[in-house]
Give the backbone structure.
Amino acid sequence: MDEEILRKAIAEQVAEDHVGLIVKEIHFDETLKLRLGCRDILKINHLWEFTSLARLDLNNNIIEKIEGLDHLINLTWLNLSFNRIEKIEGLVSLRKLEVLNLSNNRISVIENMDTLEKLSHFLIANNLLGQLDNVLYLRKFKNLFTVNLHGNPVSKEDDYKSSIAAYLPNLVCLDYRLIDENTKNEASIKYGYVLDEVQRAELQMQQADEVQQSQEAEIKLHTEAFVELLNGSHLFQSMFKDDPEAETLHRVPEVAHLLQTFEHQMVELCMQLSETGLAEHKRRETEVNSFFSGQSEAVTRYQREASQILANFEQQHKRRIVELQQLSDKDLVMVKINHCKEEINQLCNSLVALECQLISQLEDIIKKLDINISDMIGNFIKTAQGTFEQCRDLENNYHEKVQVIAATLENVAEDNPDEDMPGRDKMLFVDKDTVMDALANSHKNHLWKIKDRETQLMTRADAWKVALVKGIQDTELKRNRTRISDVHRYADHLLEQLEDLSMKQFLPESVLTV
């Protein structure tokens, strides 16, 4: 399957649809349907330009794998019948697909179709489907109108039609035959209990999915606000993770009480920072949306003015060309052509000047965005630094108080004999130097965890601001270069037309027709 096959196929179908029409140029991105049946195609590829394609027929080939369809986002009809496909895959991007024909292949499982929410016709006759439970997968397609499972092992099971009618109550046609209301009613009664269990399981799964999606959305929001995992005790818990000496000390009642107070105070600080981060994220989002709105208005206004300039020019240019074609005096023709060239240059200058005005206006609003976002990020980072400094103060205070308590721990093992106490724990309680070393290491680790989270927030916030402004500037630069290039290309096109016209005016007809 290559470009030559594709061009030939398009030319053939255009010729069939429009008899007598001469196809001068083929545009893949404008093609709406493509018939590639019976061409001994082994692999699906070279379709990335067919972004407008609505119907694709690849039936009666020797295709073994569904692939190469990722760019066909407007596809509504896909026919892959009579191939050698063993697995349903590669359909994720086809969200608009309504008709899928996989009949006469080697498929044994219905799977990997979750994104095909608009699917209405599913044809998978004469494959290797053997499990009726697998057909339950089709319950998720609420728009499914017709299914063809004929010729599969599953279609030979007892009560096959009644089971399908019960499990797929919205189905109208099965194996190209209407499912009458009596069949549906009987199936509903017969499989009522089983359906209740299925629906209950589906409801539980749906609720679990909704909870998961909600959690993922919350994590995404907090991440975009640079405060992920600060709306709770995560930072505090991470400070004491993998710290067995600290865990042993926490068994001392006085230390346990200090730790509990420390955790409560630190979690409260983290929660306040999290709420501030979310509020600041909303402010930044409003500012960015306001910028894009202003940018869109400026570009729209520019396009409107440019279109008016072009319309006025083209109206006058057509009139000048008509006048030029009616002249026979060579000198007068040259005068008119030079005048046309001046008008074209004037058009080019006007459009470029208008583009420069737009550039200047956009530079101003980009600069304003940069200043506002920088202020917001700067203020948020300053607030965050203050919060993390308070967290360090809490850690220092906790450390000092635990040191005081630790100085009295030499008699803990003797006063509280515990035969089950590990030897390492006994050593920690008995040896004062060991206790102090463990405390110092824990303290250093706790401060490092707080600093690391602070650095992470600051780095990501700054990087986001830089990436945002640079992305906007790069996009605007690309748009500007494209627009200037379009203006000059249009001017060159007009000048070439004038040159062609001047040649026809001055060269003998016999020379032009040779």
